[in-house]
Design goal:
alpha+beta; Immunoglobulin-like; four-stranded antiparallel sheet; 2 helices; globular; 9 strands
């Protein structure tokens, strides 16, 4: 009977340790990112880009230094060739600095993998990051979309 009680107590302690560590294990998981891009979200408003649209999708896996982001960018009906695309730090409607360069020049359907810092992960998870695509006619950005993050 004493062995049974000891085994039950040990099992209970092990279960508590697993529950306590579960949030840390989830934190190091895989996350999905996405953004729908259009000219209406861009700040400042672009010129003659009313029908331009795009999408940004990807996943990142956290590690001790930050994460590894795998992404794909698609767009259509831009006013010209995409000269560059970036992830910027900034809340919806506010222009912010580049925090992750994606491509330049860019082609629709382009994909890549890049390391991102813990600060970038925090911006993504805090809804403080957006993706935009630049063209020669709209050097400040032609289409933009706020990035959303979901556990995946």
């Amino acid at each position: 009977m004493k062995k049974f009680v000891s085994l039950a107590g040990l099992t209970a302690v092990a279960a508590l340790v697993l529950v306590a560590l579960a949030p840390a294990a989830q934190r190091a998981g895989t996350y999905k990112v996405s953004a729908g891009l259009n000219s209406r979200q861009e700040t400042p408003r672009p010129k003659r880009a009313v029908t331009a649209v795009g999408s940004f999708t990807g996943t990142y896996v956290e590690n001790k230094a930050g994460a590894v982001l795998k992404w794909k960018l698609s767009f259509k009906r831009l006013t010209g060739s995409a000269t560059a695309a970036h992830i910027h730090g900034g809340k919806r409607g506010v222009a912010g600095p580049v925090i992750v360069p994606l491509c330049g020049p860019c082609k629709s359907g382009q994909a890549g993998t890049t390391k991102i810092s813990k600060a970038v992960v925090a911006a993504l998870e805090g809804n403080r990051a957006y993706v935009n695509v630049h063209t020669a006619k709209n050097a400040a950005g032609e289409i933009r979309g706020q990035v959303s993050v979901k556990e995946g």
